[in-house]
């Protein structure tokens, strides 16, 4: 089996330029309006609350639009990602916007060594991040290591039930693991989740699902206390093509037919004891 980090990094490195140019990441809006923030962060503003003055780090930050959004809400942000081109893009764009954000290239499991132990009031991670990691226990240990006592984890993620569904069928059919597995699910897909005409060469990825119980148990094991948990029937991308609709005035996608059947994403918060 190839090293998952090498395989996945090649895929993400290649997609950086296409994502930065895509209208879905809205870099033009960020540049035009100093108050503009990402749809992902805006969705969770009622749950985030006031982050002014907090020392925060965004793990697996990609090109940094959520990191920038948190900085615009007053947090003193760092970002970390394993992709060199992503970090270069994020740092350059933050500098262009006049924001003091430091971005670092490193594997997420090395974050404490790179960024410092017990250094942060807030660890943030967004949608489509933890599925690239083989061990949710190691991730939880990393989060715990980064947080000061009383510091908060804030994660919005794709729901593990959503990740089990086979979108190649007409029905909602469970086709993939719900729980973490030793071996990854290996995919070979040429596209990406944003609007682009780019044809990619690196199309193989290695991914893992992590059940809600596994995530919560790992956080508790590593000294965090769950403080909030909410499931959502929507996602900020078309997770199931042909089966989802975006309602007028709402930034996210739900099942067109009886959306109450499926949790698409969740928001979880926990505090370091």
From TrEMBL:
Keywords: Methyltransferase, Transferase. GO terms for biological process: methylation. It comes from the Bacteria. It holds the Pfam family Methyltransf_25. Residues 60-151 form the Methyltransferase domain. The keyword Cell division does not apply. Coiled coil: none annotated. GO terms for molecular function: methyltransferase activity. Gene3D superfamilies: Vaccinia Virus protein VP39. This is SAM-dependent methyltransferase.
């Amino acid at each position: 089996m190839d090293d998952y980090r090498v395989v996945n990094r090649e895929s993400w490195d290649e997609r950086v330029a296409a994502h930065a140019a895509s209208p879905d990441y809205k870099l033009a809006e960020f540049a035009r309006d100093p108050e503009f923030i990402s749809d992902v962060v805006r969705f969770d503003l009622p749950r985030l609350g006031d982050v002014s003055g907090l020392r925060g780090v965004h793990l697996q930050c990609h090109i940094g639009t959520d990191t920038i959004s948190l900085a615009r809400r007053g947090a003193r942000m760092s970002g970390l990602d394993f992709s060199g081109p992503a970090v270069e893009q994020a740092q350059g764009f933050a500098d262009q916007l006049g924001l003091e954000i430091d971005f670092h290239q490193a594997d997420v499991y090395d974050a404490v060594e790179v960024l410092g132990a017990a250094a942060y009031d807030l660890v943030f991670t967004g949608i489509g991040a933890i599925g690239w990691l083989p061990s949710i226990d190691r991730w939880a240990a990393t989060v715990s290591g980064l947080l000061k006592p009383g510091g908060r984890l804030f994660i919005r993620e794709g729901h593990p039930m959503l990740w089990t569904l086979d979108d190649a069928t007409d029905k909602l059919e469970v086709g993939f693991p719900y729980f973490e597995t030793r071996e990854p699910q290996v995919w070979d897909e040429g596209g990406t989740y944003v609007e682009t005409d780019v044809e990619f060469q690196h199309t193989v990825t290695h991914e893992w699902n992590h059940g809600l119980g596994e995530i919560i148990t790992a956080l508790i094991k590593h000294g965090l206390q769950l403080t909030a948990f909410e499931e959502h029937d929507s996602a900020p991308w078309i997770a199931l093509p042909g089966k989802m609709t975006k309602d007028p005035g709402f930034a996210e996608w739900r099942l067109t037919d009886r959306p109450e059947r499926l949790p698409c994403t969740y928001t979880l918060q926990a505090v370091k004891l």
